[in-house]
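Quick illustration, no need to memorize.
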Amino acid sequence: MWSATKLVAGREIVVKLRDRTFLVSTILFLVVAAAGTVLPALFSDGSSTVAVVGAGEVGGVLDRAGMEVVAAADVAAAEQLVRDGEVDAAVVPGDGAGGIRVLAMDRTPDSVVRALSSAPPVHLLNPDAVDPMLAFLVPMAFSMVFFFLSITFGVQIAQSVTEEKQTRIVEILVAAVPVRALLAGKVLGNGALAFGQVALIALVAVISMQVVGSDAGLLAQLGPAIAWFIPFFVVGFVLMASLWAVTGALVSRQEDISGASGPAQLVIMAPFFLVIFLNGNPTAMAVLSYVPFSAPTAMPLRLFFGDAAGWEPVLALLVLLGAAALCITLAARLYEGSLLRTNGKTSLRAAWRERETRVS
């Protein structure tokens, strides 16, 4: 059984790695992950290089604000640096507040103005609160990764099973390996590929954040969420993959997959929208983090927002493992009862009874 499972899983991996569509989609996911991290930093309104005439205290203020300070001999030299594009702005003596004025080409350098402005001291009552933009982007990112990979790989699993039925290749496969080995191999092979994609996406995102100099506190906050998202994703994907395999086994033509995949799509789409719209509700998220179909995204998000105790992800993962084991057991029975039925669409009841008939 294990040798046959490894054989089927290896075949699934080799076929996918030779598939140009799979390779292009993987590259696209990585580009989106890198762009989502790098572009906001590139298009921020920060002025990174500033020329200063008579640096002194002004130069120190700009340096502490994270800007590169370039010394200029006089006002004319500073203005020429701005015109040549060698600096983003220049601070020169003037008649304005503080005896200085700022030179720029076509827009006000807001970051320079903010750094030079006198501001009252601010005391944050909730310093650990998540930035509103991150509170929107992080749930969207986790949910979309699980949603799109589950749909993409799930449809491919269903199509692969149906194609084998439609071409009658499945009859040859069943004669060589156990039916359950076919199911386990398809789930494990595609699960390994999905895990590889998620791991690469996480790695690219973390590296991109370090390259653009993101706040170390943000990395520390995202780290546990990303680390827990990977095992939750793998187990959740195995659960979903078994459902998609059964979906493919219930039909005999590729054209019928869309009609039979309604339940599988529902258990993916419902948690996706629930997590997106309810991520600001701690009670709802606590419930969703223990529901098997939503736990892969809800629990990592609770860790990111700091709403989950240290023992909760362990318990939620155990619940998800139990649900996945139960789902795979039921899926294996339905898969065996429907795989060799090639006379149109098979109902769940007929697949269940077919398995009982074979056993008896």
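The mean pLDDT is 79.
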